[in-house]
Write a structure and sequence with these properties.
Layout lengths: L4 H13 L42 H11 L10 H13 L2 H4 L68 H12 L14 H8 L15 H6 L1 H13 L8 E7 L5 E6 L2 H18 L16 H14 L4 E6 L9 H8 L6 H11 L3 E2 L5 E2 L12 H24 L4 E6 L2 E6 L2 H16 L11 E4 L11 E3 L2 E7 L5 E7 L1 H17 L5 H19 L5 H19 L10 H10 L12 H14 L1
Parallel strand pairs: 1-4
Antiparallel strand pairs: 1-2, 3-7, 3-8, 4-5, 6-7, 9-10, 10-11
Helix pairs in contact: 1-19, 5-9, 6-9, 11-13, 15-17
Length: about 600
Amino acid sequence: MEVPLVWRKAARVWNERTKWKGLTNLPNPSVAEGKDRHRLPKLAVGPNNSLEAYTGKFAGRKRASNKAAKGEVLKGLPGSKSVAREEQAVRNLGDPVNSRRTNYESQAGRKTQRQGESSEGKLGVGSLRSSSGQPLQEGADVGQGSDQSTQPAQATSAVRTTEQSWPTFLRAIADKARKDPNHRFGDLHRHLNQPALRQSFSLLRKNAACGVDEVTFKQYEKKLDANLDKLVERLKNKSYHARLVRRVYIPKENGKLRPLGILVLEDKLLQAAATQILLAIYEADFLPCSYAYRAERGALGAVRELTDELHWGKHHFLVEADIKGFFDHVQHDKLLELLGRRIQDGALLGLIRKWLKAGILEIDGRVLHPELGTPQGGVISPVLANVYLHYALDLWFEQEVRKRNRGQCKLFRFADDFVTCFEYRHEAAAFERALPVRLAQYGLELAADKTKMIRFGHNGGPYNGRFDFLGFEFRWEADRQGRPTVKRRTARKKLQRAVARMGQWLKSHRHLRVSEIMAKLAAKLRGHWNYYGVIGNSQSLQHYDQLVRKLLYKWLNRRSQKRSYSWPALQRLLERFQVPRPRIVEQTRQRVQETSSLVWELV
């Protein structure tokens, strides 16, 4: 019996992670040499390569149980001396399990790791990674949104860690928040101590822009212990004050400018530590409809779940909406009131108030004191935005709208961009009328040009509309068998802007060495494929690849007065530097379930 490829890959992954001798006889790819180290090894684990031989149902288990009954010592079992010696050897030589240890799980006496750097100086926890698990190189263009590891290229980003990487006190807070939804947490300010600040310091970007004090990451790191001691002392003495936020403007895709606030490093450090506390409290409160700035959730997850819900659910109408200038219209007093429902620590709430009221230094030297909004670029801003919309929209939809409707309805929200699906037209129209009234209670307003109701269902036929969400265009079309299905492709505006950005980048960087251009181009294309490489989007990927090749041919031949490359020469150049071609990275549900079930059987 020929073993399927997906089973062999799962068995190989399990063989790499196991520490028990005799469990499988697959060669370890990490120690393979020569050209064979990239080749998938063949299975030879039993007669006729049967699946039962490598899914954990070994015939040797019966002999092992007989030996145990006779009182004989079994080798290779958990807790035995042989396994202990082998684990010790693996720890000494280095192991993927140890390389995945997070900063919060580092043992006493071990050097604290920086973001994106493991104990061996390689990419580790906190590094920016693509959806395929590969680290993004410098200059990678992740496009509009990515999976739970590569988030949208927004001006606002949050320091996020998984619950497994939290220290003990954060896990205790998360457990209490999960067990008691009405509990109000106090005495949180004391957790902003030197160990917590040191761990948060390792999560900051070391190449980020500096604030008004012009202190860089490396300068602050030289006297890290002394700087942290002074910062903690100022927190205890209540003498800490938020510094001015330096404002810069970056171009938006629609031609407008987006204001971006750049904080000083100490404010980033404190906000990162406070963000972890807020995430521990509110992660249990956030509803499944929220996908933005959360651990193990992202834009691609929202796109996949929305596609499945539209295809398999009984939805026929859809309301897409966007909040106009959300980050600039958040009411400070209302936000602090909402935070007070779960936090009764006045010192922590006072810190958040200081960050919200911090002055903004404009480019022309003017200092503004905002009465509304959160600074885009602040580390804590995404979490505060999620908390604000959790009470303003998510809870209202789940507790009032869904209970009032008779048909199916569901909400999908990524930051201030959200889509709601309905079974009946009158319920969708009622929600569209009630939504502006609800948001007005929180000082928010809908963007009229991005808010509309359309028909979108199985039986809509030519009356079905199309809509854009997170960089994708959703539409109903017939598949190869002629059955109606929900298809996705790169939104036209996103594709045009991506091509324009690539052309501008090639034009401004054509003076670099060809090797540098090819390396950065490969990283940008890899980021584009990792996000937009969903099932059914191959034509858009091929179109983008063709346009990029034409732009590359144009600007490489304008490096001098003579033409440098022909089309065959350019093709050889791309193959030489292994520039990735378009590919679909998304897996079908059936294949993912088969792989997961096989891994669980192996475990």
